[in-house]
Amino acid sequence: xxxxxxxxxxxxxxxxxxxxxVAEDGRGGTVRFIGVIPNTPEAVGKMAKQLARHGExxxxxxxxxxxxxxxxxxxSLGHKCIVVxxxxxxxxxxxRIKTDRRDxxxxxxxxxxxxxxxxxxxxxxxEALR
Length: 130
Description:
Blueprint: E1 6-13, E2 17-24, E3 31-38, H1 41-52, E4 56-62, H2 69-76, E5 80-84, H3 100-113, H4 124-129
Parallel strand pairs: 1-4, 4-5
Antiparallel strand pairs: 1-2, 2-3
């Protein structure tokens, strides 16, 4: 029986770029910063295809003004993806330093541990209404 390898991908999404980190399944799984890619459908598709070679992927990112295009693209490719409200992400008191790399790594770790609460992702019609 073949064991399915599962990885949790944290993304810090901005208008122009996306920072990506991967946390391997299991409490002792390693966390790697993959890098920064442009926020384009082609780059997101290529990144998902490359990472999918290593097993099942479970994506997450913070909701922002960029919309839900990344979520729709990843779910259409057959991957799991959740969007999290920034106010629902657990933070340590006194934690003030924020960088794209740290944010993506933290999202991957919290997603692996199940400490993130997903928000409702509207379909394109509902999103157009807002």
